[in-house]
């Protein structure tokens, strides 16, 4: 199966084998050695000297952890959303009692840093900016460098969901001054789901001291205290730690610069291939993601039938649209363990399936903007 959804992503054999090893004591020296190495290597990828915590959670778990560890009920926050995952971060903040000011940008477009500046300037009570780096639901990458600069200038805490970008798209956490940055093992890390990583700046620790949202399992104070002994407060996903140790070694071997270059090549190849088939990428070209490509489903074509045909006849697994984009787009995940050959297979599968589901044109269908 050529698994091309934007997480879970395929894992190299060595990574899977490491995860199949016998259980070890999570309070023993073998686990401590794994945790020490994993933490150090993660910091290199995050390009940060901040604390780096690893939680046993899916991405949504670490999103909740980020919110409850830094905010109090009643805190005013600006939640910038360009799609389903931005909406989710806002919903989490709301669920825990933050006063959420929501700033939505058209799906398929990126957030405008100047519009964010305006929204942040309007209300001095806003404490934090919550934003998605790479919006997996639309295939758009925000200009995090520019957005962080704006939020820094206005002295806001910056909380970033980099779940589907960190390790695949450059994100120098310290250089850009981001306070909380999150990722998840099943995205660009070539690992099974189960672990989430989060960097916590000095400023975020300061916020944490005063943050009153209820928390227990997620409490960063507990996690940090355990980390001093290379342990976790609760039983971690030991097998995924073993897998991540190997995955990070493989990433080091390839070299981060080479990984970013490969991701960029593959992103471009996917978008160009899609256009050559007479289809349109959903995302604005200027901010198209190099980890996931959303494709507009042509008028009159059933997205579900297309995805099913591609799966049944070609063994290629693509993702549909989420929420309001259900039926309107399909998505190709190309992050982590991915090669040009994988994408060639995807494009061939789409090319051969399109006529079977009634696509007659080689003409570009309506653009995303016109559909909206
Ligand atoms: C995958 C993803 C998440 C988290 O999803 P989980 O299913 O909880 O792991 C959050 N944000 C983005 C941008 C993602 O791609």
Protein architecture, described:
- The chain has 372 residues and is of the alpha/beta class.
- It contains 14 helices and 15 strands.
- It has helices at residues 13-19, 29-46, 59-70, 84-95, 113-122, 144-153, 173-176, 202-210, 220-227, 238-254, 256-276, 303-314, 340-353, 368-371; strands at residues 2-3, 51-56, 76-81, 99-104, 126-132, 134-135, 140-141, 157-161, 180-184, 195-200, 280-281, 292-296, 316-317, 319-320, 329-333.
- A 7-stranded mixed β-sheet has the order 2-10-9-8-5-3-4, with helices on both faces.
- α11 runs parallel beside α13 (340-353).
- The longest helix has 21 residues, at 256-276.
- It is globular.
- The two termini are 33 Å apart.
- Mean pLDDT is 96; it is low at 363-372.
- The structure holds pyridoxal-5'-phosphate.
Question: How are the SSEs placed, and which strands pair?
Answer:
Layout: E1 2-3, H1 13-19, H2 29-46, E2 51-56, H3 59-70, E3 76-81, H4 84-95, E4 99-104, H5 113-122, E5 126-132, E6 134-135, E7 140-141, H6 144-153, E8 157-161, H7 173-176, E9 180-184, E10 195-200, H8 202-210, H9 220-227, H10 238-254, H11 256-276, E11 280-281, E12 292-296, H12 303-314, E13 316-317, E14 319-320, E15 329-333, H13 340-353, H14 368-371
Helix pairs in contact: 1-10, 2-10, 3-4, 5-6, 11-13, 12-13
Bound molecules: pyridoxal-5'-phosphate (PLP).
């Amino acid at each position: 199966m050529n698994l091309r959804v934007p997480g879970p992503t395929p894992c190299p054999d060595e990574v899977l084998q490491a995860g199949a090893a016998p259980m070890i004591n999570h309070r023993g020296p073998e686990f401590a050695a794994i945790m020490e190495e994993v933490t150090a290597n993660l910091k290199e990828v995050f390009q940060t000297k901040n604390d780096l915590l690893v939680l046993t959670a899916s991405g949504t778990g670490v999103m909740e952890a980020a919110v409850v560890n830094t905010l109090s009920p009643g805190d005013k926050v600006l939640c910038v959303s360009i799609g389903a995952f931005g909406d989710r971060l806002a919903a989490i903040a709301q669920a825990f009692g933050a006063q959420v000011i929501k700033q939505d940008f058209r799906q398929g477009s990126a957030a405008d840093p100047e519009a964010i500046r305006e929204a942040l300037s309007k209300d001095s009570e806003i404490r934090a900016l919550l934003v998605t780096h790479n919006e997996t639901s639309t295939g758009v990458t925000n200009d995090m460098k520019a957005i962080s600069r704006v939020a820094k200038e206005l002295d806001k805490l910056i909380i970033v969901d980099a779940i589907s970008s960190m390790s695949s798209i450059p994100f120098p956490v310290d250089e850009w001054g981001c306070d909380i940055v999150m990722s998840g093992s099943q995205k660009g890390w070539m690992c099974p789901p189960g672990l989430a990583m989060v960097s916590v700046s000095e400023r975020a620790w300061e916020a944490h001291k005063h943050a009153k949202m209820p928390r227990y399992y997620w409490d960063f104070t507990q996690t940090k205290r355990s980390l001093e002994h290379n342990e976790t407060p609760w039983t971690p996903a030991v097998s995924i730690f073993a897998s991540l140790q190997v995955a990070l070694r493989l990433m080091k071997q390839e070299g981060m610069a080479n990984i970013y270059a490969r991701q960029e090549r593959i992103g471009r190849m996917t978008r160009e291939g899609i256009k050559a088939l007479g289809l349109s990428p959903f995302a604005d070209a200027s901010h198209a993601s190099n980890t996931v490509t959303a494709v507009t489903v042509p008028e009159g074509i059933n997205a579900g039938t297309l995805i099913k045909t591609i799966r049944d006849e070609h063994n290629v697994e693509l993702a549909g649209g989420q929420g309001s984009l259900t039926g309107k787009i399909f998505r190709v995940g190309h992050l982590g363990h991915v090669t040009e050959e994988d994408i060639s297979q995807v494009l061939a599968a789409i090319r051969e399936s399109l006529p079977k589901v009634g696509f007659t044109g080689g003409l570009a269908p309506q653009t995303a903007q016109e559909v909206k």
